[in-house]
Amino acid sequence: MRVLLISPPNVEPIRAGIPLEIDEEIGAIPSLGLMYLAQAVHDQKKHEVSILDTRIEDLSYEEYTDRIVTFKPDLVGITTMSFTLNNVINTVQFINKKLPKTLICLGGPHLKNYSEETLKLKNIRVDYIVKGEGEKTFPQLLDRIETGESLEDIEGIGYKKDGKIFINPTTSLIDSLDSIRWPDRRLVPYKLCYSILGNGEIMTTIQTSRGCPYNCIYCHEARSKYRRRNVYDVIDEIEHCVSLGIKDFFFIDDLFTLNKQWILTFCRLLIEKGLKIKFKISARVNTIDGEILQWLNKAGCYRIHYGIESASQRVLDVLQKKITLRQQKEAVFLTKKAGIRTFCYFILGSPSETKEEILKTIDYAIELDSDYAHFAIAVPYPGTQLYKDGIKEGIFSCDFWREFAENPHRDFKPQLWLSLPKNELAGLQTYANKRFYNRPKVFLRELLNTNSMQQLCRKIRVALKLLFPGRHDRRHGSLEKQKI
What are the tens digits of pLDDT across the range 324-335? Predict the structure, then answer.
């Protein structure tokens, strides 16, 4: 079979608490999930597989659709998240019309919550869904489709048969991540990949662990089984990437620093093998200490992303963060002391949060003085405890994500757990960005940490969009005219 895996263009974005300017200008970040799936299919040596990742390639909508038609796929697999559902539907409608014999399979977080709703959609034809980790499930599905064998015993899939919908039990998690082949970056045009906040080198995404044992109520990965790869396997993958000219790595682990001994071994191996790479990670403030930071810096870590969320201990407890303000301050201070840049995330509008607490958080962001700050409005995503509690307590007028999954439409906007009026929250978000970024020291700091005129222009463009929101909104005309 000819299999095409797609990350669709974001022509119909859903505003979900994060300024669209951030998503549009973040860079060309490759989809690691698609690369893992493609590698799993490729290893079978039974099917021809290709990736069309619109986050990497700067294509017009016409060029994008031409690529689909030219490949002539027997099956198309599409990454699907709830807030990208409209984009997925646009692509599926096109394929249903232009390539009516091509089978459609959707996978991704959306299917974990809304499998049956997706297969029942009336305005598009979806043939299969895969929920959960697909590296083993998806190749099995392709084999059975080709041979015509029964799909009944394949865990974690959904399909239609004789006019009926079948949803098989969810697949168990892959216990040994070392059993999954790491992907060959040549499956995508990897030399085009970059991060606007990177070091100017070719970059890629990489993952050493999956899951997170913590209980943050706003996160869909909360309370999921934590599994980690063998450190030597990770080093081998990095060596392979370096041989391709890749020197900038974005570790997408939800919690990179959970195991101190693993981190220290990882850093020592990078140094011993002379792998002079640069990388950025995400960490919790309660999993960091001076020794870890010193080793990370020696090994090439140039930025750590921290979830600070709030300056109110009361709000942190509501969010079930299990961290303290003291831990936040110490982590940021020690990270700076170690010579590593910091990126702090803040949430505005958490349940029961007052305007005074939000303003205190904005002041706190200035006080911490991280290199970057990200201010997001609290959005209850599907499957999170925040969303479940909101429905249970009658905060939301309906199960709005399920209704959207059943009847997607362009005008959809997620409801918020409004501790303040929506317009006031949006105003505070803009105020936070202006307070933080409209400071001479920030401009000077970025100027000194810019590697090229092109990168400087990109940073200026993002800054203008953050400081003057609304003036740069994307306008929606016909899809054929959109740049993706």
Answer: 999 999 999 999
Query: Cα separation of 46 and 273, whole Å?
Result: 36
pLDDT exceeds 70 at position 18: no
> Maximum Cα–Cα distance for the chain, whole Å?
66
Report the CATH fold assignment for 2-167: Rossmann fold (3.40.50)
Mean pLDDT, range 422-443, rounded to an integer: 92
Q: Are 314 and 304 in contact (CB under 8 A)?
A: no
Between helices 260-272 and 231-243, what is the axis angle to 10°?
40
CATH code, residues 197-379+416-437: 3.20.20.70
Task: Please name which of 151, 4, 166 lies closest in space to residue 73, comparing C-alpha atoms.
Answer: 4
Return the pLDDT at 483: 29
CA–CA dist 281, 302 (Å, integer) = 9
Name, in order, each residue with C-beta under 8 angstroms of 285's C-beta and a sequence gap of 6 or more. 306, 307, 308, 323, 327, 328, 330, 331, 332
Domain ranges of the chain: 2-167, 197-379+416-437
Q: Is the pLDDT of residue 42 over 80?
A: yes
What pLDDT score does 118 carry? 97
Distance CA 457, CA 89 (A): 34
Lowest mean pLDDT of 193-197, 210-214, 229-233, 311-315, name the range: 193-197
User: Which residues are CB-neighbours of 393 under 8 A, at least 6 positions away?
Assistant: none
Band of residue 473 on the pLDDT scale cut at 50, 70, 90: very low
- Full 3-state SS string of the chain: CEEEEEECCCCCCCCCCCCHHHHHHCEECCCHHHHHHHHHHHHHCCCEEEEEECCCCCCEHHHHHHHHHHHCCCEEEEECCHHHHHHHHHHHHHHHHHCCCCEEEEECHHHHHCHHHHHCCCCCCCCEEECCCCCCHHHHHHHHHHHCCCCCCCCCEEEEECCEEEECCCCCCCCCHHHCCCCCHHHCCHHHCEECCCCCCCEEEECCEEEECCCCCCCCCCCEEEEECCHHHHHHHHHHHHHCCCCEEEECCCCCCCCHHHHHHHHHHHHHCCCCCEEEEEECHHHCCHHHHHHHHHHCEEEEEEEEECCCHHHHHHCCCCCCHHHHHHHHHHHHHCCCEEEEEEEECCCCCCHHHHHHHHHHHHHHCCCEEEEEECCCCCCCHHHHHHHHCCCCCCCHHHHHHHCCCCCCCCCCCCCCCHHHHHHHHHHHHHHHHCCHHHHHHHHHCCCCHHHHHHHHHHHHHHHCCCCCCCCCCCHHHCEC
Mean pLDDT of 337-355: 97
Give the Cα separation of 345 and 370 in Å (integer).
Answer: 10
